[in-house]
Amino acid sequence: MNTNVKMTRQEVEEEIKVLEKIFDVVRILDGEFLSKMQENPCVRVQLGMCKCYEFWKKNKPCENCISVKAYTEKRQKTKLEFLDTDIYLVISRYMEIDDEPCVMELVRYLADDTLIDMDGRDKLVGKLKGYQDKLYSDPLTGIYNRRYFEDEIRDMQNPAGVAMIDLDDFKLYNDIYGHDMGDRVLKTVADAINHCIRKTDKLVRYGGDEFLLILPNMVRGTLRGKLLQIQEAIQNAKIPECSRLRLTASIGGVLSENETIDEAIARADHLMYKAKDYKAIVVTECDKKMPDDEETKNKPRIMIVDDSEFNREILSEILQEDYEIVEAESGREALHKLGEYGLGISLVLLDIIMPEMDGFEVLKHMTEEDWISNVPVIMISSEDSENYIRRAYEMGVTDYINRPFDANIVYQRVSNTVKLYAKQRRLMALVT
User: Fold this and answer.
1) Do 187 and 293 touch, CB atoms closer than 8 A?
2) What is the CATH number of the domain that holds 100?
3) By the 8 A CB rule, do 223 and 286 touch?
4) Fewer CB within 10 A of the terminal residue: the chain, N end or C end?
5) If 0-12 CB within 10 Å is exposed, 13-18 middle and 19+ buried, where does residue 158 land?
């Protein structure tokens, strides 16, 4: 199993501080030294580069140097070292620090005059399990951590359901309520998922607010139902000291059969990001309809207000692939459709010069109806005088685009505005 642990020097130094609370010795053996050790075990004595003899009180080369083996096989190796009645757990982890191969060696004293009889064996097993739990447990949530995934799961090829679970708007929770609340959210979500799964299932904190779920021997046809159950449990979870906060998660799931878990994760991750485009949904490869099917796709709705059919057609052509287009050929029709759709309109593209009711009159009515603060307006007009532009901004427009325009610029400014106001609406929903 190739763990391929890659870290920066700074990340390693931070990890060593944590590991030193668990292990008596934590040290890094560089690849150059281990390569020479691999060629000639006596190099320890010859070069005086290693304190193994001094530490283990030996006068000859180690017959089973697992650090050399870990380096050669590019994996983690573990052994017990006995000194009289004292027992040490030795773990050697192959890793790359700033792309340089090396081995992290961890040593832990296990026994206090413990003899390896039946009772001693049970004590030893208990101690080993305790250290393993600490090494592989996420301190915040109590579930498995990323190291466990790297060491034990990545290269598994057993049939299993694989799901990636990502919290929606987690950054907003931290920004609004603080990181302590963010920690409570993560703990609550981990507990909610754990209540839905079997003892044989494995839940891993894969990233900051991303969870990996491995469901061994998941039967085809039941994956989606299980993930929907988990999604509902997350939505119904009560956050300590903030019961009004409602959580949602976007979930992608696949069935892994003739592949490694790592390969299945890549497919599940792709589906999870597809789910995040819509938020709070489950997407699996078993679904008959995917979210990007035209019947189910929930595109943001944009209203184009212009008395020129030609102008409306140009803007529709630019935007229709990613947005649902509503057209209005007059100011009065625009107000009627605003009353009909309300906040179902994500953005208004508004011309100024129109018969009967011009764009400024439309803005005036939107202000009176309190729409302008919730529905962004971008003016698109051939009028480029300072007075027109200043007046438009004073009346609350978000942006002003002059004709003739660049199609790419229009698309990008529309996209940025829609995303900004969508985030603002979610933020207001969280606060209220």
Assistant:
1) no
2) 3.30.450
3) yes
4) C
5) exposed
Alpha helix locations (H) across 320-398? 331-341, 359-368, 386-394
Indicate the number of domains in the chain. Answer: 3
Say what the pTM is. 0.52
Contacts of 287 (CB under 8 A, 6+ apart): 224
Reading the block at residue 30, the tokens are: 């560089």
259, 215: one domain: yes
Same domain, 12 and 69: yes
Question: pLDDT digit string (tens) for 248-267?
Answer: 899 999 999 989 999 999 99
Taking only the tens place, the pLDDT of each residue in 99-145 is: 899 999 998 887 554 445 556 556 655 665 566 667 788 989 999 99
User: Could you give the dihedral angle defined by the CA atoms of residues 234, 240, 244 and 250, in that order, rounded to the nearest 10 degrees?
Assistant: -20
Amino acid sitting at position 238 = K
Pick from 350, 147, 338, 55: which is nearest to 65 by CA?
55
Residue 263: φ, ψ to 5°: -70, -40
* Identity at 408, one-letter amino acid code: N
391, two tokens: 């007046």
